[in-house]
């Protein structure tokens, strides 16, 4: 497939890029600094600002799918920056007539009890709260979306560097925990789950989650 990957040099984006290339897909990496990308025969790097909807739409045209690993965590106004950028990504994807949009979501909007989301619990780390609220708003925006065939993949509570095992569980709107009460997924296996969904869609217009 020909994939447009937004945020390909970020924490999650780098693993998504590696997984996509390893599977033989052609990738257009839409990033602020293409010089950070390692050369690859199936990789094209393009400098773009996601807030420039028209320019982004022009770069998205002709792709089979868009994967957004866009993140605003490094910005001073994390919530506002992310939500504005995400709205631009959705608008640009529609303008480019790309039907499928896959989105890197957050764990904060997953339920830990009926009607209680992780981000709303007292133990949720303050330094990640703005990012989590932005990711929840992105999910709400997608759920109101009628034109795109979207999918959002939420990680477990701990999304950390590790191994690519290909062995994990999938869930819906509830946080996945293991027998010891831990909620963990490696970034590498998160990328596997996302590319699996790209190649064999099972969560059209839905959010799902992945964990051990």
Structure description:
This protein has 212 residues and is of the alpha/beta class. The protein is 30% helix and 24% strand. It contains five helices and twelve strands. The protein has helices at residues 13-22, 53-60, 78-95, 129-143, 187-199; strands at 2-6, 26-31, 43-47, 65-68, 100-104, 111-113, 116-117, 149-154, 158-160, 169-171, 184-186, 206-211. The strands form three sheets. An eight-stranded mixed β-sheet has the order 3-2-1-4-5-8-12-10, with helices on both faces. It has a two-stranded antiparallel sheet with strand order 6-7. Strand 4, helix 3 and strand 5 form a beta-alpha-beta unit. Helix 1 (13-22) packs across helix 5 and helix 3 (78-95) packs parallel to helix 4.
Quick structural summary:
The chain has 212 residues and is of the alpha/beta class. Helix content is 30%, strand content 24%. The longest helix is centred in the middle third of the chain and has 18 residues, at 78-95.
What keyword list fits this structure?
single chain; 212 residues; alpha/beta; two-stranded antiparallel ribbon; 5 helices; 12 strands; 30% helix; globular
Number of strands: 12
Tell me about the largest β-sheet.
8 strands, mixed
Total number of helical segments? Answer: 5
Shape: globular
> What separation lies between the terminal Cα atoms?
28 Å
Supply the helix-strand structural class.
alpha/beta
Order of helices and strands, N to C?
A: EHEEHEHEEEHEEEEHE
Give the radius of gyration. 16 Å
Query: What order do the strands of the largest sheet run in, or round the barrel if closed?
Result: 3-2-1-4-5-8-12-10
Fraction of residues in β-strands: 15-25%
As residue ranges, the low-confidence spans are: none
Indicate the percent of residues in helices: 25-40%
Q: What is the residue-averaged pLDDT?
A: 95
